Amino acid sequence: MINFKINNIDIACEENTTILAAARQHNIDIPTLCNYPDLEIKSECRVCVVEIDGRKKLFTSCSTIATEGMIINTNSPKVLNARKTIIELILANHDASCTACPKNLNCELQSLANKLGIDDNRFPTVLEVKPLDNKNPVLIRNINRCIKCGRCIDVCKNVQSMSVLDVMGRSKDIEITPAYGKFLSDEYCVYCGQCASVCPVGAIIEKDDTDPVWEAINNPHLHVVVQVAPAVRVSLGEEMGMEAGSIVTGKVVAALKYLGFDAVYDTDFTADLTILEEGTELITRVTTGGTLPMMTSCCPGWISFAEQRYPEILDHLSTCKSPQQMFGALAKSYYAEKMELKPKDIFVVSIMPCTAKKYESQRVEMRIDNVNPDVDVVLTTRELSKMIKQMGINFESIEEVPFDKPFGITTGAAAIFGATGGVMEAALRTVYEIVNKEELTNLDFKSVRGLEGLKEAEVELGGQKVKVAVAHTLENAKLMCEQVKAGTSPYTFIEVMCCPGGCIGGGGQPYGTTKEVRQKRIDAIYSVDENMEIRKSHKNPDILALYEDYLEKPNSHKAHHLLHTYYHARKK
Amino acid sequence: MIQMKLISKRFGSINPLSIDSYMNADGYKGLEKALKMHPNKIIDELEKSRIRGRGGAGFPAHTKVRALSKQSGDKYIVCNADEGEPGNFKDRSIMENDPHAIIEGMIILAYATGASKGIIYIRGEYQNAIMIMKASIKAAEEKGLIGENIQNKSFDFKIEVRSGAGSYVCGEEFSLIESIEGKPGRSRTKPPYPTEKGIHNLPTLINNVETFANFSHIILMGGDEFAKIGTKSSTGTKLISLSGNVKNKGLYEVPFGTSIRDVIFKLGKGVKNNRKIKMVQLGGAAGPIIPEYMLDMSIDFDRFENFDSKTGTGAIIVIDDRFDLFDILLINMKFFVNQSCGKCAPCREGHVQIVNLLNKFINHRATEKDLMSLENLANVIQQTSLCGLGQSSMTSIISSLRYFRDDYFSKVRY
């Protein structure tokens, strides 16, 4: 144990603890800016400096290890002045037109400036306004707001192994940008949005698509339906001031109804459908000597990654569309018939935890009539919260409402799609029972749950032991792909999700997603599962009815037309 | 005799491109003696010599060496020849006049620490020095002084020459390491320090050219004998790059403790046209600016530490009374605006604002508030910057605010 003093308080901590960590353990607040939980220590912003007795320089508490007998002052006049000066310097090179920024009141720089009492800047602005990078369907990069903290580089390089963003130039001309100052659309970017989710300011942000949704809602000729992804119901509450991990399923439905959507459906329904289609595909591949291992295809970030970086292994991807796109396809076919509406009069909106879904919905493959997109607009969790706030809905007190029919009944297996390992677990529950023709006694495949980067499990299917794996983050996806490419993969089925923790940690989720928050959302999702009446996709009576009514059987010709897709190698 | 030639004793008298010429002038004698000693004994001699790093910071050389020797596995020894500080030309002079002295110093350290990889990182603009060092390494290889199983002492050591693309900050040790790894020169978060995790995360020892050139002399004369040269806190000699408005500009070598005035007037023969000295900048652009009345100060690490500066580099730039303080400050600060790597906020954003403030003074638009802003900002940049660049770049501002405050007041508008 190391003993030292912070602000005259005696502190004892483990060896090799940074001053910042020790201070936080003792509820002493030191402001930070470039620091982000779970990411590298960068010590670039220099905001977290503290004074150490007997030393002239100030030291960044995030990177300085506390040693025996240190006497530290986190709020001396020298420290406060330095912090204030640094924030003023950063503000002088920042597009600080706060009310014209989507991060207004959600911006770490803004709240830090406020906290440090900056009401006037001693330094004149030196900002040289540069053009926006908005040439892609998903993200807008506004480098005029960038404060060069390096979080986005870190997450892109070290978590996703993509290295799309890096520092270019030096000194005041430094820019965080794709190589050669190009646009994101020129690069191997999969639009996972992790950069946007860690950006402390509004320098990288998803495109706001709320306007076309408002327009559609207010258009009397359109029947506007909305689907809600599994991960949204355990995260939206955070945006509304509730605890991380609050389950707000019924409230989301109620709020969406209040916003004026004609019908509110659950993406969980098509998640169940995915399990039947994908499970059947797996069984077919195994029994007929098809390409193995099969890899999941629900995650658009992962699909982009495979198409760009590993075109050799595209045969391994399941041909199933993602639940979002299955819903879109059904809405504009089965649902249109049932409601006696023309497909073009149906406007489909998705609420997703994901930025890449915006890209997915615009893929040309995702148009059953080859003209109009099946899903018209994708909104992130954050964009939905914006709409709810615009309408002045008191979210916490709103009365819960169930999802609409005919896609009303969903299962616990679909709910867990939102967490890493969830698709695998849901698939195993179904495939096991179909292949082995016996009931599963224990539905919980605990070995594929949790935040471990790579997980594996072994199941007995038709008398033989089969290995399956679960990977999340592209860093881990890469490992899986390398194995598959080399032909050494020991697995039969692999689930891949692009974002850390799966969709609950998606790039469109509420800001401030950390490991701790991810775990809370995951816990919530499994408790949703546990409390479901039906927990296996193939036991969903509405799904069975849909096959009976319309799709005939899993992997039927009709199902293939509507629910399956194809992939192709591409550069960007 | 003010000069004392130790490092520069062979300058001009040997052919730098001939290893035999070097060996005939006591060259590689230090290595020969060192190879008969136990590695730890060599480090003990360095400790006794109390030699401090000649790159500027003045860190006791033996501590880094000992730290490296305690690390196991592959290790790097790097000679920092990225001499980018304006007003300095001592490292180039050593490389161009006595290249083997550097190589000899590196081999001695490699033997003492068990390092097997050596890199000489030379400033890109020094094409001549790069050519000479490469030729000298080849010559030493041919003599079996570099390579495998050197002198049957069963230790291997290889040296290669690297150079950057000419960025000033690459002289800073972590930026230099990044540059060697093929990345842009930007500093890293400390700790870990280079002797723990340097090039490719392997333990790395970085010393200045002049420091390496001292090692064979220390081994030959013994640490105790070496420590008798100079002052108590600063042992040995110092190469001085004398430039500016002096009659005899050039490179001189003096023992520590010599006064600046003696260097300027006895070696440099005073100011051209016998003009008055307005100010002297020590060390380079990142060094303090002092007035004429302080010239009796002796060249000594401890004396200079009052300025938190890089005076160890040993540059003396004399500026006569035709020049205005702000001319010099503006040149310095524009230099740092260009040379900051841009990684940490105070250095990246601060220098731009310093230039803005200086321009206000130059245009007689500054107020007392601006004077306070300048002083405050200079201190914040110095106290909070990530690496040596920002920590030392403000020395000229801070020192001139102390010694030339009237110059500032004369430009303030009331």
Characterization of the model:
The complex is a heterodimer of chains A (572) and B (414). Chain A is of the alpha/beta class and 572 residues long. Chain A has 3 domains: 2-75, Ubiquitin-like (UB roll) (Roll), CATH 3.10.20.740; 98-111 and 123-205, Alpha-Beta Plaits; 211-563, Rossmann fold. Chain A is built from 19 helices and 17 strands. Chain A has helices at 19-25, 77-91, 108-115, 151-159, 194-198, 210-217, 236-239, 249-259, 267-288, 300-309, 323-339, 356-361, 381-390, 412-415, 422-436, 474-486, 515-530, 541-551, 557-563; strands at 2-6, 9-13, 49-52, 58-60, 71-73, 139-141, 166-168, 175-177, 204-206, 223-228, 263-266, 294-295, 346-352, 377-380, 454-461, 464-472, 493-497. In chain A, the strands form 5 sheets. Chain A has a 5-stranded mixed sheet, with helices on both faces. Chain A has a 4-stranded parallel sheet with strand order 11-10-13-14, sandwiched between helices. Chain A has a 4-stranded mixed sheet with strand order 12-17-16-15. In chain A, helix 9 packs across helix 11 and helix 9 (267-288) packs across helix 15. The longest helix of chain A has 22 residues, at 267-288. The relative contact order of chain A is 0.12. Chain B folds into 3 domains: 19-227, 3-Layer(aba) Sandwich (Rossmann fold), CATH 3.40.50.11540; 239-320, Ubiquitin-like (UB roll); 325-409, de novo design (two linked rop proteins). By secondary structure, chain B is of the alpha/beta class. The longest helix of chain B has 18 residues, at 345-362. The mean pLDDT of chain B is 94. In chain B, helix 2 (29-35) packs across helix 9, helix 3 (39-49) packs across helix 6 and helix 6 (99-113) crosses helix 9. The radius of gyration of chain B is 22 Å and the shape is globular. The A-B interface holds A 41-47, 49, 56-58, 60, 63, 65, 78, 81-82, 85-86, 89-90, 92-93, 122-124, 126, 147-148, 167, 169-174 and B 167, 169, 184, 186, 189-191, 308, 337-346, 348-353, 356, 373, 376-377, 380, 382-386, 391.
